[in-house]
Design a protein that fits this description.
Mean pLDDT: 95
Bound molecules: BIS(adenosine)-5'-pentaphosphate
Structural class: alpha/beta
Distance between the termini: 22 Å
Strand content: 5-15%
Strand order of the largest sheet: 2-3-1-4-5
Helix content: 40-55%
Largest sheet: 5 strands, parallel
Length: 192
């Protein structure tokens, strides 16, 4: 595996992708890129992108694949992502997985690993409701989980089939999860 890792954090809403991506970014020296965060910033700033996606996000549905492709291509081709990245929240559908491969292939790059954070559903709901983000109302959380099962969960098998999937138990204290991910990536000892 190359030094500057190119990895995806995959998991249900509330599984800890954002929390772990932020911690691992500093340890691994690559940027954490959260598509949810990129979209939320666009909504807050009232950009054309933000105006297109605000309603969809508030309902817990997915932004369409073509629009996400533009957002992700622009972010992954920026200077700080050249040496690697931790992608949180993308890909979320089989077409998005194809787009990611295309973006990387255009630059003679490929994914090193996909970390799947495994957390039971009742814990996911509890975590989201405790956080109180704008889309963390119970009915929206349940819709995000439904959309996850329908559109994103099939990617677990897809990446497993490609030999890229690393399963990590995400229902543990945060430090243990961080250590588990680093071990799964072959980077043990980089977190105390
Ligand atoms: P996004 O921001 O990606 O939301 P999500 O996938 O629903 O994920 P969350 O942020 O809820 O959870 P997380 O897994 O990051 O967990 P976190 O670390 O925050 O996307 C939002 C929306 O944007 C989508 O619904 C969609 O509309 C749109 N979107 C984004 N990407 C898209 C794409 N590719 N295509 C189409 N649309 C897209 O942790 C959750 C809570 O749990 C926190 O309070 C945290 O402190 C706590 N916690 C974390 N780990 C632990 C632990 N080990 N123990 C106890 N508590 C923990």
């Amino acid at each position: 595996m190359a030094d500057g890792i190119r990895a995806v954090l995959l998991g249900a809403p509330g599984s800890g992708k954002g929390t772990q991506a932020d911690r691992l970014a500093s340890v691994l020296g690559v940027p954490a890129i959260s598509t949810g965060e990129l979209l939320r910033r666009a909504v807050t700033a009232g950009t054309p992108l933000g105006r297109k996606v605000g309603e969809v996000m508030a309902a817990g549905r997915l932004v369409d694949d073509a629009l996400m492709a533009e957002v992700v291509r622009e972010r992954l081709t920026s200077r700080d992502a050249r040496g690697g990245f931790l992608l949180d929240g993308y890909p979320r559908t089989p077409p998005q997985a194809e787009t990611l491969d295309e973006i990387l292939a255009d630059r003679d790059q490929k994914l090193d690993a996909v970390v799947y954070l495994d957390v039971p559903e009742e814990i996911l709901v509890r975590r989201a409701l405790a956080r109180r983000r704008a889309d963390d109302r119970e009915e929206v959380v349940r819709e995000r989980l439904r959309v996850y099962r329908e559109s994103t969960e099939p990617l677990v098998g897809h990446f497993e089939g490609r030999g890229l999937l690393r399963r990590v138990d995400g229902d543990r204290p945060m430090d243990e999860v961080t250590r588990g991910i680093l071990a799964a990536l072959g980077r043990n000892g980089q977190w105390c």
